[in-house]
Amino acid sequence: MAGKPRLIYLNGRGRMEPIRWLLAAAGVEFEEVFLETREQFQKLIKDGALMFQQLPMVEIDGMKMVQTRAILSYIAGKYNLYGKDLKERALIDMYAEGIADLMQMILMFPFSSPETKEKNLDSIKERATNRYFPVFEKVLKQHGQDFLVGNKFSLADVQLIEAILAVEEKVPAVLSGFPQLQAFKTKMSNMPTIKKFLQPGSPRKPPPDDCYVEKVMKIFK
């Protein structure tokens, strides 16, 4: 029997957090290895473990997988969270890529200079309310189903609930004009595997603080 997936990253959200979310949503237990020093990162590179000299890395099914999107696609396919055919997979990918664009803004926000933080926060709010969330509000309203694609739980749903909660941490009332997304958030948050992941003590990481930002800069730069 194969061992648990092993996640190698820092002890923080970053680019590993959507992978943690997806594994947790699929009900898959995993192990984590947290880097603390630049030397540990350089050793991984020297040992040839990182194909593009980048993290995150996930050891799964005998592979050392890198590149977040490839890892997410593999996990989604393995655990039947990637649609029933190519058309559904294409929709899931489109939705997931759109969400990833929004999440990139959130990912970079803690690294903003003090002078640009307010402007960047306004940008997150503007993009979420005018570009990204209206898409998903419309999709859910038009087909009247619980999930984004094929009325079946998928990678797209996991990434959307992660994004909703991440934006709400910064803009608490962001869903005020999106009743479908409010209902979606409630349903997703009460799914047993996701509900478990949202409890204290789960592998979900807290919002990045100054200490985390400092560690990222030290290890990767």
UniProtKB/TrEMBL annotation:
GO MF entries: glutathione transferase activity
EC number of the protein: 2.5.1.18
Gene Ontology biological-process entries: glutathione metabolic process
Record-linked CDD domains: GST_C_Alpha (cd03208)
Domain GST C-terminal: 85-209
Keywords: Transferase
Keyword Transferase tagged: yes
Stored InterPro entries: Glutathione-S-Trfase_C-like, Glutathione-S-Trfase_C_sf, Glutathione_S-Trfase, Glutathione_S-Trfase_N, GST_alpha, GST_C, GST_superfamily, Thioredoxin-like_sf
Start and end residues of each GST N-terminal domain: 3-83
PANTHER family: GLUTATHIONE S-TRANSFERASE (PTHR11571), GLUTATHIONE TRANSFERASE (PTHR11571:SF230)
Family the entry assigns: Belongs to the GST superfamily. Alpha family.
Protein name, entry field: glutathione transferase
Species whose genome carries this gene: Tricholaema leucomelas
Lineage of the organism: Eukaryota, Metazoa, Chordata, Craniata, Vertebrata
Gene (name only): Gsta3
